[in-house]
Amino acid sequence: MSKKLDLLKATSRVISDSGVNRLTLDAVAQEANVSKGGLLYHYATKDELIKALNLHVLENFRKLIEKHVATGSSYHEAYILATLDSLKKDDVTTSLLASISTNRELLNLWREEYKYINEKLSKEDYKIEYSLLVKSVCHGLWFSDLFHFEQIDHDDKQKLINYLFDLLKED
Q1: How far is CA 95 from the centre of its chain?
Q2: C-beta contacts of 95-98 below 8 A and 24+ residues apart
Q3: pTM score of the predicted model
Q4: From residue 19, how far is each of 13, 24, 65, 98, 119 by CA, in Å?
Q5: Does the N-terminal or the C-terminal CB of the chain have fewer CB atoms within 10 Å?
Q6: pLDDT tens-digit profile of 80-109?
Q7: Over the Cα atoms of the chain, what is R_g?
């Protein structure tokens, strides 16, 4: 694993384990077992670190979608499956939480990605209501995890995803 990836994973762990209010360059360096100077060599500021975390998460999420599309899923199905995959890790929620809490301008990265996703979804021949439902459910699952609202266990998440797939087949 590359040093930059180690630092991003350490950033995510600090946010997940201690909370975003405890996210400091010192805490990340300690979590990654590197000197602060070693961290600063790769990321000069906390904003740079959080931006890199967001870019990493968005790139990985897009790769998850592409992986599912490559196996024959529609983009709608792939988006749902990638969301379910992403919930097994904290990366999406920690990067969002860091952006919301420290520099809301970093959310523009997510806004741009959503434009891309919406464009891909709109090219498929599904009712707009189905696309809206898919996005709302996926976002709801992320935000439920992000803010530790009512936790939906893995089995119930899978039931919900299966229900969306059944609706898709009816459409």
Answers
A1: 7
A2: 95/12, 95/50, 95/53, 95/54, 95/56, 95/57, 96/142, 96/146, 97/15, 97/20, 97/146, 98/11, 98/15, 98/20, 98/23, 98/50, 98/53, 98/54
A3: 0.87
A4: 9, 11, 28, 9, 34
A5: N
A6: 999 989 888 767 778 888 888 888 888 899
A7: 17
